[in-house]
Amino acid sequence: MPLTALAEWLCVGGMTVARAEIQSLSGFVWSIAEILRGDFKQSEYGKVILPFVVLRRLDCILESSKGAVLTAAKDLPKGVDDATRDMILFGAVGGNVKVYNLSKLTFASLKGQDPAQLHDNLVSYISKFSANVRDIVLDKFLFTDQLKRLKEAGILWNVFERFTEIDLHPDKVSSVDMGYLFEDLIRRFSEISNETAGEHFTPREVIRLIVELLIANDDTKLTGKGIIRQVYDPACGTGGMLALTEEALKEFNPSIRVELFGQELNGESFGICKSDMLVTGHDPEQIAFGNTLTNDAHKSRTFHYMLSNPPYGVDWKKYQEAIRDEAETLGIDGRFGAGLPRISDGQLLFLQHMISKMRDDEAGSRIGIVMNGSPLFSGGAGSGESEIRRWMLESDWVEAIVALPTDLFYNTGIQTYVWLLTNRKPMPRRGKVQLIDASAGRFWKSMRKSLGSKRREVPEEARKEIVRIYAEMLNGDAEYGEFSKIFDTTDFGYREIRVERPLRLNFRASQERIARLRDEKAFRKLPEDERQLIEVVLLGMGHRLFRERDAFEKELTKALKAGGAKTAPAVRKAILSALAERDEEAGICADAAGRPEPDPELRDHELVPLKEDWRGFVAREVTPFVSDAWVDENYRDARDGEVGRVGYEINFNRYFYRYVPPRPLKEIDAELKALEASIVGLLKEVTA
Question: What is the C-alpha separation between 25 and 583, in angstroms, rounded?
Fold first, then answer.
């Protein structure tokens, strides 16, 4: 498959960001947080700094149109409704900005006011914003509470004055650059407060890789006039994935119309994302606040592109009632009908949610989601995770999975994987899944300075290479065979069959085994005199060893009858259990129909590749080693009714295992001796 035009553009194009300038700006903003030391906890710095950044950004954008907006507000017709008023005032601002402020004040003019009046002036200034901004600043950031604390601590003027020194006008700082600024600030705040930075954002080089993989082969669909694409992130955080997707699409086709949708649970992240939508001309109402899994804010919508980095290993116990109810009520017609993962990890719930929003038209949908290793292999046959994988693979939606390097994220060093799904696979990919191991050393480089847990990055050259491997569907060639392999979807499936072996027991009425009978529940319930009588009868049977259960039961029946001991079935069962021990040389215990009884302790399960008949597998892998084993044919799959339960797992290590020979013993020995010498030297220093 040749490299497509879009893939070629992705490999050589795209905007570059002046990261050094953004880091410098972030450092300046971060220095403002030092003013808060002592009056605010470190974990609270973000509650002050982030909304101030948002307000300063809006102030810079609106300053030039202040006069026009105030004039338009003065000339509004009497009795105008809210929607019409907003439309007129948005027009006065100009461009695609959907925010206005009716205060005569700006950050610049506030600086010239009496410092003692700053708190009241700021509150008044904020209250004159359009309702969409007031919702963000007052309700999500709860900023008036922070302003009050700043005033009471006597540091409000110091913080405000420093922010007036920052120019955040779009001519100076683009929307993408603002994303970098927020990313860096949130990382810093998360580090000092020990919060999970990964719940807020994803490293930009990872987002770029996902976006480029998503649209690599869509050149024919994206070329021309009148193209509209809707992009959705169900855990959108500060909106980084949405912004970079729009950037990539518009760079390839400037005339394309991109509509952005998202939902976010964290109030501060939601406020940042919605603020960005306000100033970039997008409909801010398409960014919803709330829990995507329990309250889908975009129920009736489907999307062309969906991408997300949902929280890893976060349990959904608090929301399980609503999720289970939806799964049971709607079944496969709902979002979670394929199965529910374990309560400790909700990643696959987000993926199912995204699949439910695929478009059923000619264009179809494409999904890119980054998750940890758990969704690949957690859960055996019949489990929720396995059933979800089965549903996706049997529906032929999984197109490729890319293993990323470790130490790539700010808050965790674990390995992550990018899943690519679509309901419109091109013909060469139908029934196939491409696995790409981009964790190898050629696809990453060490950072000169670590950022939290992030010690590695995927450079642009490596990103181009990964995209090309995917776009050209490379498989097993001389150069990339070690890193890219293509499989049939059924290669990941198996049948878990239950292998039984016969129960073999010997029996003896010895004092030791009779003592075990006293622990049996059914025996303990008997009156004391009946218990004593049964023990006397059993002791009278002698210490003879029986290796046939039928023979022992006959002797037991005869002895109990002769001793006048009557036993209920439960008591008799307890006697047989206490007096029995497993014995490989004993005869097989059979049921009333003469069939061998299985021994639960010897029960085993074999995983038979889905492409292979289980009978042939057993004849080759089981019977030659345990000739008395058999397959329990009542152990069947709930969906297809065939013998054995169907399971699916994707084990990257199995397909990309690289043998690393152990170091020579001489080298290890020399290293140990050097360490010993070092320890001896340190001890001498301590004892000197």
Answer: 77
Distance, CA of 376 to CA of 386 (rounded, Å): 9
Domain boundaries defined on the chain: 37-164, 505-582
Relative to beta strand 228-233, strand 305-308 is parallel
Write the pLDDT tens digit of every residue in 494-536: 999 999 999 999 999 999 999 999 999 999 999 999 999 999 9
What letters, b where the CB count within 10 A reaches 16 and e where it falls short, cover 530-566? ebebbbebbeebeeeebeebeebeebbeebbeeeebe
How far apart, in whole angstroms, are the C-alpha atoms of residue 292 and residue 345? 15
Whether residue 588 contacts residue 627, with contact meaning beta carbons closer than 8 Å, is answered with no
- Torsion angle of the four alpha carbons 300, 301, 307, 310, in this order, in degrees rounded to the nearest 10: -20
Contacts with 25 (C-beta within 8 Å, 6 or more apart), sequence order: 166, 173, 181
Each residue's pLDDT tens digit, 385-440? 999 999 999 999 999 999 999 988 877 888 999 999 999 999 999 999 999 999 98
| 3-state class (DSSP) for residue 258 | strand
Do 493 and 614 form a contact (C-beta atoms < 8 A)?
Answer: no
Q: Are 420 and 399 in contact (CB under 8 A)?
A: yes
Q: What's the predicted TM-score (pTM) here?
A: 0.82
Tokens of 521: 């529940």
Give the whole-angstrom CA distance, residue 48 versus residue 44: 7
Burial 202-235 (b: 16+ CB within 10 A, else e): bbbbbbbbbbbbbbbbbbebbeeeebebbbbbbb
Please count the helices (runs of H) and the strands (runs of E) in the chain.
Answer: 28, 17
- Which whole-number Å values give the CA distances from 244 to 178, 231, 653, in the listed order? 12, 11, 31
Q: What is the DSSP string of 42-111?
A: GGGHHHHHHHHHHHHHHHHHHGGGHHHHHHHHHTPPTT--HHHHHHHHHHHH-TT----B--S--HHHHH
